[in-house]
Amino acid sequence: MTATATDFTQRLDKTAEETEALLGELLSDAPMADEIIRPKRLIESMRYSSLGGGKRLRPFLVVESAAVFGVPRRGALMAGAALECIHCYSLIHDDLPAMDNSDLRRGRPTLHKAYDDATAILAGDALLTIAFDIITRDEIHPDAGVRLALTRALARCAGVGGMAGGQILDLAGEGRFGDSGPVDVARVQQMKTGALLRFGCIAGALLGQASAAEYQALDDYGRALGEAFQIADDLLDVEGDAATLGKPAGADAELGKTTFVTQLGIEGAKQRVRDLLARGDAALSIFGAKGDVLRAAAHFVAERKS
Asked: Which domain of life is it from (predicted)?
């Protein structure tokens, strides 16, 4: 393992540990000001789906993109925790019987299997909502304008023109709503999976009050990373196994989904990933050595086994 790869792994693990601890604080039993109580079943189900697993790649991208600009780590971790709450809510709802109907997530029963459908829906709703409580907190950045920009960007990446919109396009591609015509896989990916990963990158630029050129560089990198992540995910669904993935393999084929692999073939998909890595690397050139950890993150995404 190279020095850069070793440094990346250590930094990824450190951010995951810090994010886990921070989420534990944010999802504690104690109510915040203006809250009445935090119902035991709801907070326990939120913690079940948010703690004790995951690489925390999205918070890592926030922290490392912010580090390029010397942003204080605590604020970046808070923004990353808000993003992770959105991600965890999306997994809960994605696993539901009306969506992908999955029984396994991160090697253990999905939330609706461990609890029930109603609890899973409400836990997802609560995680989505608390994300916007977190992203607006003063400790993220002293400038209210920066916090507003972060909040708006997170809403747009998570909402109708981002992840939620991508989810319904993905369902349409399965034929859920009748014949929807040909599936634009790249567009679905850009919204469903790529939007939150892209936010992880542009969040650092917003926190760092980057120049227009620096913001564009992280935006370009985030878009390339997001697509590479989804192609790697599609490849794992074909080539991986449930024990390693922590979730059922072959689910896309069972659902009749059109993916990058079904469109490009395995070798074509792998070449596309290599092209995206080159594009991401070129985008980061503006940052010189400060972009090395983000470069390593792109290779991690492309080469991961789970």
From this structure: Bacteria
